[in-house]
Amino acid sequence: MNDFPWTGTGGLSDTQSYSWILLNAIFDRLSQSSFFTNFVMKRTSSALQVEGDHHIPFLGIFLGEDLYEPDGDINAGDIRFINKVTIGIQIMVINNDPTEMLKKLDQASWFTLNQILRDNTLMNRLKTTMPDGDNFRLEGVPRIRFRPDTWGLAGSQNETPFGERLFWLTYQFRTEWYPTEFDDLERITVTTAFPLGDPDGQSKTQQVKVVYEFNPDSVPTPLPPDPP
């Protein structure tokens, strides 16, 4: 069975989802920021375990729930969705002083929110630097949820105290799934049928026939004759 034909735009979203593009855009911005420059581990995969103190301080950016809801009536027009994707941000730090550890986690999360929510190259609906090629625009952030901080001990002898902060940001955008590979409309032929509902009268009356031709670049000119 052949693939269903799809006309892409030449951008990254020809092969990757908008959620994946957003995930990596946030990761690139945070991992290169001043606060997280010296973090020993930064990654986008939640499948890998954080191992001991040699992976901490740690920054993780992960995909969470990806929800598609109808945009308008589901039986009118092409398929359109309001997309809500959740991006999880995990921050882990080491400090022997629990109060200082909590302060560091709060500083890290507040820095993160300021970086990604105030970033005009990410959130501006008119002009962004998102590498997609086909007008992907974020509409807003309807929800942010923080999980209570957790604490633990790392290292081979459980000698290193660490703290973890995990929170999720929900981003909203829209997608449209219109069909592709339609044939071009090349000609419309209109023929009168007067008097209406009278086949015998119509056969005795000269009818008017009008042909409308459309000549996009892909259509050969002149067009072949109308079928009889």
Provide the residue-averaged pLDDT. 84
Structural class: alpha+beta
Q: Could you name the CATH homologous superfamily of the largest domain?
A: Phage tail protein-like
What is the CATH architecture descriptor of the largest domain? 2-Layer Sandwich
In the CATH scheme, the class of the largest domain would be Alpha Beta
Q: How many strands, which pairing sense, and closed or not: the largest β-sheet? A: 6 strands, mixed
Order of helices and strands: HEEEHHEEEEHE
Number of spatially distinct domains: 2
Counting DSSP E segments of at least 2 residues, the number of strands comes to 8
CATH fold description of the largest domain: STM4215-like
Helix content: 10-25%
Number of helices: 4
Terminal residue distance: 36 Å
Task: List segments where confidence is low: pLDDT < 50 over at least 5 consecutive residues.
Answer: none
β-strand amount:
25-35%
Shape: rod-shaped
Q: Report Rg.
A: 29 Å
Provide a descriptive summary of the structure in words:
This protein folds into two domains: 12-177, STM4215-like (2-Layer Sandwich); 183-228, no CATH class. Helices cover 19% and strands 32% of the residues. It has helices at 18-31, 98-117, 120-123, 199-203; strands at 41-43, 58-70, 79-94, 140-146, 150-154, 160-177, 187-191, 209-213. The strands form two sheets. Strands 1, 2, 3, 4, 5 and 6 form a six-stranded mixed sheet that branches. A two-stranded antiparallel sheet has the order 7-8. Strand 5 and strand 6 (160-177) form a beta hairpin. The longest helix has 20 residues, at 98-117. It is rod-shaped and about 105 Å long. 14% of the residues are buried. The mean pLDDT is 84.
